[in-house]
Amino acid sequence: MGLFKGSTEKNVEVDSEKCRGCGACLEVCPRGALEQGEEMNSRGFTPVRAAHPEKCVRCGLCAVLCPEKAIRMRK
Question: By CB count within 10 A, which of 1, 29, 48, 68 is most buried?
Fold first, then answer.
């Protein structure tokens, strides 16, 4: 599955090991493509996940605002 995990769709991917679950991306996503996950990563954080990647319109706000650079837009 590669470095970026959490999505089976092609629009947005979250690296669950980099994400610290701060929620900045959740606040800016205009379509609700992301949601807070339920499982902890190896760093002890509960990362965000791409729960509805099909809703993503590729605006890129989540990726730009992520302080950990844990989100990327797929081509």
Answer: 48
